Amino acid sequence: MTSKVVVVGAGVVGTACAFHAASAGLDVTVVDRGAVGAGTTSRGEGNVLLSDKEPGPELALARLSRSLWEEAGEELGPHSIEFETKGGLVVANTTEGLTALREFALRQSTAGVRTEPVERVRDIEPHLAPGLPGGVHYPQDAQVQPVLAAAAMLRAAVARGARFHTGEIAAAVTGRGDRLTGVRTVVGDVLPADAVVNAAGTWGGEVGRRLGAPIEVLPRRGFVLVTEPLPRMIRHKVYSADYVANVASSDAGLETSCVVEGTRGGTILIGASRERVGFDTTMNPAVVARLAAQACRLFPFLRRIHLIRAYRGFRPYCPDHLPVVGPDPRAPGVIHACGHEGAGIGLAPATGALVTAHLLGRPWRGADPAAHTGLLPDRFFLSGGVPK
Amino acid sequence: MSDPADLIIVGAGPAGMAAAATALAGGLRVVLVDSGTAVGGQFWRHPPEHARSVIPTEDLHHGLREYHDLREALAAHAQKGQLDLRLHHHVWSAVRQDDVFVVHAVDRRKAPQEIAVVLRAPRLLVATGAYDRQLPFPGWDLPGVLTIGGLQALLKGGGVAAGSRVALGGTGPFLLPVAASLAARGVEVVTVCEAAHPRAWLRHPGPLLRNPGKWAEGAGYALTLVRHRIPVRPRTAIIRAEGGARVTSVRVASLAPDGSPRPGRERRIEVDAVGVGWGFVPQLDLLITLGCALTDSADGNAVVAADEGLRTTVPGLYAAGETCGVGGAALAVGEGRLAAESVLADSGAAPVLRGKRLAAVRSAVAAQRAFARALALAHPIPPAWSSWLTDETVVCRCEEVTAGVIGTARAEGACDHRQVKQLTRAGMGWCQGRMCGPAVHCLTDPKQAYRPAERLVATPVTLGALADLDT
Amino acid sequence: MSELIIDGKPLAFVEGQSVAAALVATGRVSWRATRAGHRPRGVFCGIGVCFDCLVTVDGVGGQRACLVTARDGMTVTTEESTDE
């Protein structure tokens, strides 16, 4: 049983780990070189999605996370995280696409996802383009404001005794028998710990290396577009069925399939492209134009609406596109919680609960390590370990 | 223009005009892009060419001989086809791809219609100027309260005054020409509140002595103000505007050395319009997105880092004018010329300025830069300006975020304007923090220079125009 | 003098003026309300930076009145556009 935990990373995953671990009575220190939620957390749309996940280890985590977000909303105050159950609407562009989408939805529903076939998509999204053959409504899809949520979870953790330390970690400190005793920062501070959580998101590969537990986490660049504020025109997270294919894709080039949604602030978000270009921060107007074109095809009224902002971030992904959550067999005391790709916001609370369960050695808030073995880092090191 | 351009210049103010004229004289093919209806930028803002007889504004300007010379040079080159002048073009993005700069604009000559335009050249010069820096105060969002630049733009561009009884406030020499312009159009300027103390100049007398032209310009304004009996009140500030549907009065306070209002030294003045400005903020959006290094300037702004030849840290990318540090039109013209000389040299073309003329431009630029620095130090933002705020004062005009909400975010640990934005939405609205950014920065991190948030989209553009780019 | 139509009524302007200048010439300095607090807004920066002066021009919202040159017969709507 662990008592002192250092969580590396104050993004939505790190703060969720801190929130759950502190709630379980553990002594928690969160360390980040920057501000809370300043990395990929601040660059997403705040998706809490079930609709884009096929049955498997990620969907299992997502289902737990969806209910834990709701609990967190009740605990932290729904306004403090802007939790909104807006629902998702996936639309097909062709009748063949619709057939594939319905089959996909059927498999999801047998895995416990609520799905509702929609014949006339304009009945529930009146501004959609005419002529779309149909879609599937996912009433559980939801939204949080990720930076507010991370800040609220960190505040709640601090209220339960956690500390926040600004700094960059350099290495693990080990004692007798390679037992972890703490982490050292680049300026030489030593934070005592008998467990350290790698929740460094896109930088999780580097943090893992410094902790003596290297894993492969790579960046996948995405642009998100933000329009001028409008009266509410779009009610759901609306996306076209090819998005599902893109999320699961391993192709190297640019992929876009837009997700369009309204926000509480009145702006409409259009996300998100997927490019494997390393940490290249360069603006790419062609990607922006592609997203704009796709959004206008879904919602023709958008042609007259202004783009006022675009931002980009780097999703952290593992080679098999599954997050890595659990203890590293090579470095006792190191627990990974990264590689969530574009689903980190949605998966954060369940990741935090699962990490806490690993720390406690028993289930915590519905997270049972025995039920999520497919996410363990072992899969990268032990033979035959890569789950499908 | 069918031939590919050698140089794109964004911004047709004093810097962009001078740079274009020099580059054209050196034989380069130039595209000059500006969102305005005429060349001249803010300083030499004019009505569109066809409207100048009905909206006379020449008497409001300074340094017009230079303007006319440059304008004629540009017109001559445009006629020859060597200059591609793109007015009403709004640049929303500029990127560097394989050693070529790709500038994305929308053509708004038939506004509100927007047509996407893509321009390419091996070299790019950004001369996008600056706008008024604002500090919020209670009532600053009432109708009738404008930036001093806004008052001036309405006069110079449209021939209209936004009020008949106007109070001006803030700091810096720009207050004086605006007061003079208003007075010239029959507006009663009831007070000019200058927060700085004139003695501040005595700490840096050198640059003042080395720039007699500036001295003469200032004396000219002073005479105009005396003639119109406009009182200039040093060490005072407009700390509140009052009214309902429109501003009806201001509170003017006498300031202690730190900028806090002296108790019991407040006056109420009836007005129907107010102009405020606290120096300027350079428009760095394109340069930041292109990856230029920035450096701190004496006026509290980060500006683009450029060498003596106005080369930025990105190869092939140049900057001139206020983007390199706010310093006025004469400096901008000099920098524009020097930047164009660098473009010529880097393109393997012969120089236009040689010998003594080049040396004269260089030494004038150096003297004006020193003057600008002294000016910035003499007209700082008063350290205690935030004592004018109440919790209810709107700081972010777009998203209506109050000083109280920003104070809460700070108490929760937000320590720069980006974090405040994420937690409060201040700076997330239409203007993307252009208005409130410097103020939120001063409220959170006043010791550092203000670095604007990265704005990948430099100006709003319709999704339809963008979609048409996707083929 | 030329005329544009603002909220259904004619507004005379001098050719070359912006929509904002044409409004200010008649003494109007506000023509919009903020989304949350419904505070009146109009011309502030005058040079296209603050977005306080937004109007709808010929059916397209989000137009900065200070940047759009007034044209004879142009239709300007000053309410926040809600009819998309």
General description of the model:
The complex is a heterotrimer of chains A (388), B (471) and C (84). Chain A has 388 residues and is of the alpha/beta class. Chain A folds into two domains: 4-78 and 146-217 and 320-381, FAD/NAD(P)-binding domain (3-Layer(bba) Sandwich); 88-139 and 218-317, D-Amino Acid Oxidase, subunit A, domain 2 (D-Amino Acid Oxidase, Chain A, domain 2), CATH 3.30.9. Chain A has helices spanning 12-23, 57-76, 78-81, 95-110, 146-159, 204-210, 242-247, 285-298, 344-360, 378-381, and strands at residues 4-8, 27-32, 47-48, 88-92, 116-118, 134-138, 142-143, 163-166, 169-174, 180-185, 190-192, 195-198, 218-227, 237-240, 255-262, 268-274, 306-317, 324-327, 334-338. Chain A has an eight-stranded mixed β-sheet with strand order 5-6-4-14-15-16-13-17. A six-stranded mixed β-sheet of chain A has the order 8-2-1-12-19-18. In chain A, strands 9-10-11 form a three-stranded antiparallel β-sheet, with no helix packed on it. Chain B has 471 residues and is an alpha/beta fold. Chain B has three domains: 7-131 and 281-375, 3-Layer(bba) Sandwich (FAD/NAD(P)-binding domain); 134-278, 3-Layer(bba) Sandwich (FAD/NAD(P)-binding domain); 385-444, Arc Repressor Mutant, subunit A (Orthogonal Bundle). Helix content of chain B is 32%, strand content 24%. Chain B has a five-stranded parallel β-sheet. Chain B has a five-stranded parallel β-sheet with strand order 9-16-10-11-12. A three-stranded antiparallel β-sheet of chain B has the order 4-5-6. In chain B, α4 (175-184) packs across α6. The longest helix of chain B is centred in the C-terminal third of the chain and has 24 residues, at 355-378. With 84 residues, chain C is mostly beta strands. Chain C has a single domain (2-77), classed as 2Fe-2S iron-sulphur cluster binding domain, sarcosine oxidase, alpha subunit, N-terminal domain (Ubiquitin-like (UB roll), Roll). Chain C contains one helix and seven strands, in the order ββαβββββ. In chain C, the strands form two sheets. In chain C, strands 2-1-7-5-6 form a five-stranded mixed β-sheet, covered by helices on one side. The longest helix of chain C is centred in the first third of the chain and has 7 residues, at 19-25. The termini of chain C are far apart. Classes of the chains: A alpha/beta (388), B alpha/beta (471), C mainly beta (84). The interface between B and C is large, with 51 and 41 residues.
